[in-house]
Specification:
Elements: H1 12-19, H2 21-51, H3 58-85, H4 94-126, H5 135-156, H6 158-161, E1 166-169, E2 174-177, H7 189-224, H8 227-265, H9 270-281, H10 283-294, H11 296-330, H12 333-338
Antiparallel strand pairs: 1-2
Helix pairs in contact: 2-3, 2-10, 3-4, 3-5, 3-10, 4-5, 4-7, 7-8, 8-9, 8-10, 10-11
Keywords: Cell membrane, Disulfide bond, G-protein coupled receptor, Glycoprotein, Membrane, Receptor, Transducer, Transmembrane, Transmembrane helix
Membrane topology: Multi-pass membrane protein
Main location: membrane
């Protein structure tokens, strides 16, 4: 995001980004890889979570919500790739630009909030097992929580939902989509600062809560000496914190830094922020690994599928071997000698 003014004169850093063909190609290739891995990994995860995983615990409900946002991103990224390969020239209309932008940022912040919710559920189940013991009640809370996440994120993104996010640049002959925000989208610098900080808070507070929950889980399991469960908890914590630090932290800290530089010092970090958004999309590729470590039922079903596939391959090989033996035994004696 950038808070450029509504005038047609852009800063050199932003113009250089639009004129850099190598940057757009690199970002496009990264998005292509992410799209392929996203659709395959999350497609399989959604099938397992919806049709092969029972019971639908709160963690499973949160994982379904996370997979849904990841798949939405996987569907939206090809449009972003086309936009980049056309030299940052958007030709699909203002409404489509708004929809894809909202999908992009909703995925990021709903993913953050959903991972926080999974960590809270594990914290309650292991550290505070007496709370929310009734499964039916916990399921209802999980479903309501998913709707509240979407409502919260969309309310924070409301200024973008009510603004034309396309921007014409006559000197380059292109129309950008969400690469240049009009300064009059919000009434004042104070409003801009509040908007950026509210977006940043959607990353910062869930990060602290998630870290606290998983560290508490590890300490509890270490005290109870449950070695196997403790190892899985450590792996899950490592994976979640990796997603936060690798995928979400760079883009959110650069967003805050860029906004401060842009609003108060008229300088830009937008090229670095644009590149950091590529890493934020990697979360949709790493989320299936979180499911694997977070859900025993998900692990079991995935292993069953892998084992069934391996067994079916072995069975087909054995069947072909038996057919060849049977053919050799039933062949005429003269023909067998001739061969």
């Amino acid at each position: 995001m950038t808070g450029n003014s509504s005038s047609t004169k852009l800063d050199n850093a932003t113009l250089s980004l639009f004129q850099s063909g190598n940057t757009s190609i690199i970002i496009s290739v990264l998005y292509m890889v992410v799209t392929a891995v996203n659709l395959v990994g999350n497609g399989l995860s959604m099938w397992l979570l919806l049709f092969r995983t029972w019971p639908k615990t709160p963690s499973i409900i949160f994982m379904i919500n996370l997979t849904l946002t990841d798949l939405a991103l996987g569907v939206a990224l090809p449009f972003q790739i086309a936009y980049l390969l056309q030299g940052y020239n958007w030709n699909m209309g203002t409404n489509m630009c708004s929809v894809l932008t909202i999908v992009f940022y909703t995925n990021m912040y709903c993913s953050i909030l959903t991972m926080m919710a999974i960590s809270i559920d594990r914290y309650l189940g292991i550290v505070r097992p007496m709370l929310f013991r009734q499964t039916r009640e916990r399921k209802s809370i999980a479903v309501i929580g998913c709707f509240l996440m979407w409502a919260l994120v969309l309310s924070f993104l409301w200024p973008m939902m009510t603004t034309d996010l396309t921007y014409g640049i006559p000197e380059l002959g292109i129309t950008t989509c969400f690469d240049v925000l009009k300064k009059d989208m919000l009434p004042s610098s104070l409003a801009w600062a509040a908007f950026i900080f509210s977006i940043f808070s959607l990353f910062l507070f869930p990060f602290f809560i998630t870290t606290f929950c998983y560290i508490s889980v590890i300490l509890k399991l270490a005290k109870d000496s449950k070695t196997a469960q403790k190892k899985r908890a450590i792996r899950l914590t490592t994976m979640v914190l990796l997603v936060f630090t690798l995928c979400f932290a760079p883009s959110n800290f650069l967003l805050l830094s860029h906004a401060v530089m842009r609003i108060f010092y008229n300088k830009s970090l937008y090229m670095a922020y644009k590149l950091s958004l590529c890493f934020s999309c990697l979360n949709s590729c790493l989320d299936p690994f979180i499911y694997y470590f977070a859900s025993k039922e998900f692990r079991r079903k995935l292993r069953e599928i892998i084992n069934l596939h391996s067994l079916s391959s072995m069975d087909s090989m054995k069947l072909e071997h038996m057919r060849s033996l049977f053919s050799a035994e039933s062949a005429p004696e003269g023909q067998e000698r001739k061969e």
